[in-house]
Amino acid sequence: MSTHMKKAGIFVGLTFLVNWSFALLFFALRGRLHSSVGIAFGATYMFVPMTVALLLQKGVYREPLQEPLGISFRLNRWFLIAWLLPPVIAFATFGVSLLLPGVEYSPQMQGMFERYASLLTAEQMQQFQERVPATPLAVVPLVLFLGLVAGVTANAVAGFGEELGWRGFLQKELAFLGFWRSSLLIGFVWGLWHAPLILQGHNYPQHPIAGVLMMTILCVLLAPIFSYIRVKARSVIAAAIIHGTFNAVSGLAIVLVRGGSDLTTGVTGLPGFLVLAVVVLLLWRHDPSPSYRDADHLYVQSQNVCDDNGLRLTGSSTAR
Q1: 320 pLDDT above the threshold of 60
Q2: What percent of the chain has pLDDT over 70?
Q3: Dist. CA 259–CA 275, nearest whole Å
Q4: With 70 as the cut, is the pLDDT of residue 38 above it?
Q5: C-alpha angle 250/252/253, rounded to 5°?
Q6: Residues in Cβ contact with 13 at an 8 Å cutoff, skipping those fewer than 6 apart
Q7: 256 in Cβ contact with 109 (< 8 Å)
Q8: Who's near 176: CB < 8 A, 6+ residues apart?
Q9: Best label site of 39, 48, 156, 302, fewest CB within 10 Å?
Q10: What's the rounded Cα separation, in Å, for the pair 105 and 88?
Q11: Is there a contact between 180 and 318 (Cβ–Cβ < 8 Å)?
Q12: Which of 281, 157, 293 is nearest to 234 (CA)?
């Protein structure tokens, strides 16, 4: 157990050191997230967990990569679930948002324009508005289509940069904690990892400080879902797909709403938290003790730790 905790700690420490140092340098040089350079910075930031995981797994510990980290392209129904669940969450979040005070339906996308007003220059905002179709409602199927395509292509590649670290290496090393405890711990680490970006306005431009807490809550809620997909699919690729698709279609939850704030709208706000909490609750009711037997290498990992300590832990611990 101590060996796996040590390996997990080294991974987290190195990942945070590289990412946070990189962010400090970028913002010290007056870099802006919402610029072409900022987009490249964000993409690079996402690949650090993968890079650290590969260096440790192969370079330091001299262990195999493919099976232990769950790198498998063997398709199964969980890949499809990983692809289609994010739009369901986004549309449900849109519906919940309309139930909150101060939030209203906006078919002309005024709320979307207001949200981005503080992030874009006047010229960028004008270009943004010019690209909106004459019938704004047509944006919804367009965003859905493009999001689903991106979710299994470019966004999945970017998501893989994170997921090989979080749901590949770290989940492997924390398997002895059981599904729920390991997922919640990974979610907390994952959320805190975003802090430098959040403090610079990512996701929560109106509330960057409170946004750090909000992003951590979001990741804690997402972690069991992503981890469950990864275990059932026996592949970290499926986790990359749900991650990439979630990022790509999340705009569906805010494109036609007006009012509220970045804390009370969208999948990153209160409505999204409520929807994700329901999904996690349904997951817990359906499978209260997910076993790592569904991902053989993780099961063996947890069994090896238990054998070393004379304990019987089969990955079925819960956070109840």
Answers
A1: no
A2: 85
A3: 19
A4: yes
A5: 80
A6: none
A7: yes
A8: 1, 4, 301, 302, 305, 306, 313
A9: 39
A10: 18
A11: yes
A12: 293
Which tokens is 70 given?
A: 């769950």
Residue 57 in tokens: 């797994």
- Is 5 buried (19+), middle (13-18) or exposed (0-12) by CB count in 10 A? middle
Q: Give dist(CA 317, CA 180) in Å, integer.
A: 7
Instruction: Please tell me the distance from the alpha carbon of residue 143 to that of residue 76, in angstroms, as a whole number.
Output: 26
Please report where in the chains the tokens 């729920």 appear, as a residue: 180
Instruction: Give the mean model confidence (pLDDT) for residues 172-176.
Output: 96
CA separation for the pair 3, 65 (Å, rounded): 18
Q: Are 65 and 54 in contact (CB under 8 A)?
A: yes
- In angstroms, the CA 83 to CA 79 distance is 6
pLDDT for 124-136, tens place per residue?
Answer: 667 766 666 656 6
What the block records as the tokens of 134 is 């004459």
Nearest to 175 by CA among 290, 39, 299: 299
Query: Confidence class of residue 116 from pLDDT cuts 50, 70 and 90?
Result: low
**Domain limits of the chain?**
2-309
**Residue 309 pLDDT:** 43
> Beta-carbon neighbour count of residue 132 at 10 Å?
15
Residue 310 CB contacts under 8 Å (≥ 6 apart), including other chains: none
Backbone angles phi, psi at 3, to 5 degrees: -65, -45
Burial of residue 77 (CB within 10 Å: 0-12, 13-18, 19+) is: exposed
* Res. 318: pLDDT tops 50: no
